[in-house]
Amino acid sequence: MGNHTVTHSVILGTGSYVPERVLSNADLEKMVDTSDQWIRERTGISERRVARADEATSHLSLHAANHALEAAGVEPGEIDLIIVTTLTPDTMCPAAACWLQSHIGAHRAAAFDLNAACTGFVYGLQAADAYIRSGMMKKVLLVSADVMTRMTNWEDRGTCVLWGDGAGAVVVGASENGRRGVVDSRVYSDGNGGELILVPGGGSRFAPITADDVHNKEHLLQMKGQETFKTAVRYFLGACKETLERSGLTLDDIDVFIPHQANLRIIEAVAKRLELSMDKVVITINKYGNMSAATIPVALDESVREGKIRSGDNVLMAAFGGGLTWGAALVEWN
């Protein structure tokens, strides 16, 4: 029998973009019954970014994608597939990925959206990895972007303080230097918990949305915070541990941990139970809030550009989100 060479996928380049407008906790104090101290103590957030009225998900994605393509040294025409993970697409149809394809001129790329809420980047990275490993695609542009402030209920002080807008991107291709790249990824879901994080309107359940639906804010995000917190910590831990076990690694082998930036308390609780030093944990929630699927790739891009992630580092990423969905991915940096 001949030798069988396993194709590994690697991240060739990263990029990110956050809108210019900053919404601070002091600003929120003027909008809703809250305080800077209350927000920081419960979430770890000091400020977040808000997209301009003329910025949709594909526009945020465009900036992040261009940065990733430049970092990878890849032209748009070389991209075989565009995956945009989002729960706030520009339109229900076409997909945000199709709008992005048009924006960047990736004329030969297939394009689709993937909605796994805050876990979108991990789901998308597994999909990109599978396409590369199978040989069906050679270069995949993966963008995770959300304009969460468009579906925020600004009268709900328990949730409106959480959300921000942003986009992160990676170009994924085949390994050419022996690196393992995407070592492993695990994704999970539990639809029984779907009502914990929910946007009722916009789908076929409320179609078309009526004035009463809008009055009742059925088109905005609803979340049961306490139940979500407990579930998130448990699922975070399980995904991380299983991914490491399957890879034959331990937490001592991890150089950088990038968790979904939902709540600083969740991040600290996960790190404590994993017995992982906070020195290895990337934190961006203080300045960006929860950008849903964009939090991990934005943190990844900033860590790479700041030199916090170096060639050969083992990077563990994990997320939890609506669906319910959760998962983890382990990458040996190229």
Structural class label: alpha/beta
Rounded Rg: 19 Å
- Count the strands? 13
CATH homologous superfamily classification of the largest domain = Thiolase/Chalcone synthase
Strand content: 15-25%
Spell the H/E element sequence: EEHHEHEHEHEEEEHEHEHHHEE
CATH class of the largest domain: Alpha Beta
Alpha-carbon distance between the termini? 31 Å
Q: Architecture of the largest domain in CATH? A: 3-Layer(aba) Sandwich
Strand order of the largest sheet: 1-7-6-4-5
Short description:
The protein is an alpha/beta fold and 334 residues long. It has helices at 25-29, 36-43, 57-72, 96-104, 120-134, 211-215, 225-247, 264-274, 285-288, 295-305; strands at residues 9-17, 21-24, 47-50, 81-85, 110-114, 139-147, 165-174, 182-189, 197-198, 222-223, 256-259, 314-321, 325-332. The longest helix has 23 residues, at 225-247.
Topology record:
Elements: E1 9-17, E2 21-24, H1 25-29, H2 36-43, E3 47-50, H3 57-72, E4 81-85, H4 96-104, E5 110-114, H5 120-134, E6 139-147, E7 165-174, E8 182-189, E9 197-198, H6 211-215, E10 222-223, H7 225-247, E11 256-259, H8 264-274, H9 285-288, H10 295-305, E12 314-321, E13 325-332
Parallel strand pairs: 4-5, 4-6, 11-12
Antiparallel strand pairs: 1-7, 2-3, 6-7, 8-13, 9-10, 12-13
Helix pairs in contact: 3-4, 7-8
